[in-house]
Design goal:
With 238 residues, the chain is mainly beta. The protein has 2 domains: 142 residues, no CATH class; 70 residues, Thrombin, subunit H. Strands 2, 3, 4, 5, 6, 7, 8, 9, 10 and 11 form a 10-stranded antiparallel sheet that branches. Strands 12-13-16-15-14-17 form a 6-stranded antiparallel beta barrel. Strand 9 and strand 10 form a beta hairpin. The protein is globular. The two termini are 17 Å apart. 34% of the residues are buried.
Length: 238
């Protein structure tokens, strides 16, 4: 199996934040569990977008990273990232308070992201409530209008999830904030929308995108890629 790990193109200060994210599937307070939630892959007039919410704890403090990837014919690929802190209300709902927000761009998916701009976001607030153990609702959505539904595809320890965006033949590309944490020897599979699992091979991962080959079928946008990561003891290239 060909497996290539690219060095992250993130700015140093954000690379520290992302590389220090703990492994998903750690119990949080009041029935919440750390992990990755994804929106549906939504078609737009000139492209599409998808969003991810990642909740975790670091040194006893609740942290989050919320991202949106989008493509259109005018601006090519953009990734918007919100990072900050969360707190739990007496009702059991979680409040997200962004601290740092930025937009990255790339000519092609699978290339390293380039910082375009940062913007003020510490005045924003998002409320997240659980609909079920694997589904949450956020108000407002990232565009600050309406609401957004997110689904958690997996709760396995040491696993990293991503969502399929593009598929050509038996090759396809997925996206997820934790893909830059994948280690050599990790075991991937594709989780189809109908719940079936299919074997795949990792071709490469670059920042928050991954390229794969299917061994038994075709991937569709919205399918999930689950990678059972090896235990971490050092840098990603160990």
């Amino acid at each position: 199996m060909k497996f290539k790990l690219a060095h992250s193109g993130l700015p140093f200060f954000l690379a520290i934040i992302v590389s220090s994210l703990p492994c998903p599937a750690i119990d949080l307070a009041r029935g919440w569990e750390s992990g990755e939630w994804f929106s549906t892959v939504q078609k737009l007039p000139n492209g599409f977008d998808a969003k991810e919410l990642y909740l975790y704890e670091n040194s006893g403090s609740g942290k989050f990273v919320m991202t949106r990837i989008s493509f259109n014919n005018l601006r090519n690929w953009e990734e918007t990232r919100y990072s900050g802190k969360w707190k739990i209300l007496p009702s059991g709902k979680i409040i997200l308070n962004p601290v740092f927000c930025s937009v990255y761009g790339a000519q092609e998916i699978g290339k390293r992201w380039v910082l375009i701009r940062g913007f003020d976001c510490d005045h924003l607030e998002f409320e997240v409530s659980q609909k079920s153990p694997d589904s949450v609702t956020m108000i407002p959505a990232m565009n600050l209008e309406g609401s957004e539904e997110f689904k958690k595809p997996v709760t396995e320890k040491n696993s990293v999830a991503s969502v399929v965006l593009l598929s050509i033949g038996n090759e396809f590309i997925s996206w997820g904030i934790n893909l830059n944490r994948i280690r050599k020897g990790s075991s991937p599979y594709m989780l189809k929308k109908n719940g079936t699992k299919e074997k795949i091979e990792i071709v490469e991962t670059v920042d928050s995108s991954g390229k794969y080959k299917s061994l038994s079928g075709k991937a569709d946008p919205g399918d999930f890629i689950i990678i059972q990561n090896k235990a971490r003891s050092g840098s990603l290239e160990d």
